[in-house]
Structure formats: C-alpha cells, structure tokens
Amino acid sequence: MAGWAWVDGTGGVRQGWPHSGAVSCGGAAGPGGAAGGAAGGAEFTLRWDHSAESRARLAERVSVGDREVTLFELLLQIFEDRGLRVDLR
To answer: What is the pTM of this model?
Structure first.
C-alpha cells in the first residue's frame, strides 16, 4: 500500500496512510522506522501544495558542508535522501 501526505504551503500538513506518520516534524517514520523505499518497499509521496509560496518563504540560505542552499532546497534533499517522492504543486 502506498502512503501519501501533502503540505499546504500556507502552513497545513495532511497525511494519509500510514497514520503513524511517514513524515513528521521529527523526521521520517513509517513501518519499520523508515520512510519511502526503505520501509520494506513501501512507497510514499509527499504532495506539496503552494510550493512556490513555500519556496519564497523558505529562501533563507544555510551552510550544508561546503555549500549554501536555501531551507527549501535542504528540505527537498532531506526528503529525497529518505526515499520520499515529492510532488511540487
């Protein structure tokens, strides 16, 4: 069964299966303690509504290793690293 969640760029987060939280403020947690492909082959897609507004609001730059990225880019990288697909809308 595939999981899903969406971020409403105006501040809301909605979530589908698994209700235990594939994405939470503290990180990813799904069946087996991991998200996305790492969760025993389970798939998870994060639908990010109003992502352009979020990108504009999360424009602060932060250092990551030897480079600088925006907070928005950092979030996308974290999601990707955890095996989540992100559908920007």
So the answer is: 0.58
